[in-house]
Amino acid sequence: MNASIDLAEMRAFVAVVTDGSFTTAAERLGTDKARMSRVISRMEAKLGARLLTRSTRRLSVTEVGRDYFERAVSILAAAEAAEAAVAQQTREPKGLLRITAGSEFGPMVVDTWIAAFLKQAAKVTIEAEYTNRFVDIVHEGVDVAIRVGTLADSGLSARRLGEVHYGLYAAPAYLRRKPGLASVGTLDQHALIMKTRRGRPAWMLQNGQERAVVTAPPRATVNSVIAARNLAVAGLGIAQLPQFMAAACVADGTLAAVLPGWAEEPAPVQAVFASSRYMDPKVRGFVDLCVAMFDREAARRLA
Predict the structure, then answer these.
(1) pLDDT tens, residue by residue, 180-220
(2) Which CATH architecture has domain 166-258?
(3) For the chain, what is the radius of gyration of the CA atoms?
(4) Beta strand 238-242 pairing with 203-207
(5) C-alpha angle 262/266/270, rounded to 5°?
(6) Which of these, 27, 99, 234, 268, is most buried using a 10 Å CB contact count?
(7) What single-letter DSSP state applies at residue 106?
(8) CA gap 160, 97 in Å, rounded
């Protein structure tokens, strides 16, 4: 008995059982009834078992045939999935890629990823929306959302890119005017610039296993970390900022890190998309690039 798998024969058998007719199955597969009958007979001879019981009026599946049918359906589905996965890897990315990200993380980080992707994917065009509103990517037709923070359980697929780390920063001129920042407990004696959207502003800080909650009334409350950075650069107080945003200011001397190690918990950054199965090549390509660039930039900008 030669029981090697022939996917074409297997598809023919599944079609006959599904349709309950040689004639209907043959029409669906673009062949003729006689050829379908020969294929099934050849399979039965090769397997050494009767799969179908034929009569002039009806076609029925034997117990062995039913077991073979169930296994064949699974095998064909796996084969189709494997072929689709290979096709997705080898097809060239092309078409419109719609992206959304936060209004601050987008222009400061995602822009560089988009620029790199456009250079390597010549047939892709991009439409990016940077906003702090929640974008329903399925209903709004967005391909990829770059989100900072813990994700809600939405049923969407996500790929973790890395983390945003934070720190406390102030202008050197402010620190000269307001010395005495010896410990986290002395923050309430300083002018603080806090970002908040609603409710009472506060910082939930940690340094290893130590924790501190800072609730001192801030000198300024803003709803944008860019605004917080600008006020800190102007010498108006201490701001908590993402390290990627403060890095350039530290490098040019307009900001200095204070109380190193103290900051809020790092926030995860993830690429969110509708499904990880049968991903469009442009979506897969962009997400893969985001992972690679985040890793590459971690030591220089984002860590």
Answers:
(1) 788 999 999 999 999 987 667 899 999 999 999 999 999 99
(2) 3-Layer(aba) Sandwich (3.40)
(3) 30
(4) unpaired
(5) 165
(6) 99
(7) I
(8) 19
